[in-house]
Amino acid sequence: MFKSLAVRRSQGTQYIADLRAAQAAGFRGKPVIGEAACAAGCSACVSVCPSQALALEPVQVDLGRCVLCGDCAAVCPSGKIGFSSDVKLAATQRSGLVLSAARPDVDPVQVSAALHSRFGRSLKLRSVSAGGCNGCEMEINALGNVNFDLGRYGIDFVASPRHADGLVLSGPLTRNMAQALQLCWDAMPEPKLLIAVGACAISGGVFAQSAALDRQFLERIQPTLYVPGCPPHPLTFICGILDLLGIP
Predict the structure, then answer these.
(1) Pairing of the two strands 225-227 and 155-157
(2) Which residue, 93, 145, 184, 242, could crosslink 247 as a Cys pair with Cβ 3.0–4.6 Å?
(3) Distance in angstroms (rounded) separating the CA atoms of residues 60 and 54
(4) pLDDT of residue 100
């Protein structure tokens, strides 16, 4: 017992009382594109990007593709690209994830009055990994731990799609998961929402050109919320879903 008390004293309180105000120290978050001019003829950032998330003239970063590796900032000779620790990266429109010097912030999540009315006090989610590496899935699991405790808002993950109001999709959508993903979605009662978590789910990420993928599901069903990252920080998911539901 005394050993347990000593561990608790050394670790302090792990529970995060205010998730909205929490800071992710050391986290490589939102890309920052400065006003400095690029070196003449330089395309080092585009060449090194593993997921084709960068474009030039003007310099743009697509957070739906970006895996937050930081390689672009490391090779940029003019310091045009950097990264902050900002975790508030979620958006309700795919186009809202494209950042530039003229558009430095992700488009704010649009509050849905209809979703707030129906799910503002209770939202049940079913997680499906469609070929993921388990990075996003581990962060999704962390949403229910003692630190983040997403259940305090009435938002929980359930084992059956029959009990779910929304599907949390991670992974690049491999062909061998296409049928299972569709079956899960079809089993969920209306109304329902789709949340795409991670660069792989949003765009295919580093696997976007792979012949092993079948992303037709996202051609039929548009996500209600995009949560970028590789993997996303739990706070990115939390802030995004709370904004969507209009929960303060």
Answers:
(1) unpaired
(2) 242
(3) 6
(4) 95
Give the pLDDT confidence score for residue 230 in this predicted structure: 97
Count of domains in the chain? 1
What's the predicted TM-score (pTM) here? 0.94
**Nearest alpha-carbon partner for 241 in 20, 72, 27:** 20
**Crossing angle of helices 135-142/234-245, nearest 10°?**
60
Q: Give residue-wise pLDDT tens across range 29-67.
A: 999 999 888 988 899 999 999 999 999 989 999 999 999
Instruction: For residues 217 and 239, give the distance between their C-alpha atoms in angstroms, rounded to a whole number.
Output: 26
Task: Judge whether 178 and 136 are in contact, CB under 8 Å.
Answer: no
Q: What is the distance between the alpha carbons of residues 184 and 29, in angstroms, rounded to a whole number?
A: 31
Residue-wise pLDDT for 82-112, tens only, equals: 999 999 999 999 999 999 999 999 999 999 8
CA-CA distances (angstroms) from residue 119 to 108, 127, 150, 242, 247?
A: 20, 17, 14, 11, 10
- Return d(Cα 225, Cα 110) in angstroms, integer: 9
Residue type, 227: V
**Is residue 83, in this structure, part of any structural domain at all?**
no
> At 217, which CATH number?
3.40.50.12280
User: Rounded to the nearest 5°, which phi and psi values hold at 214?
Assistant: -140, 100
DSSP 231: S
User: What is the rounded distance in angstroms from the CA atom of residue 62 to the CA atom of residue 53?
Assistant: 5
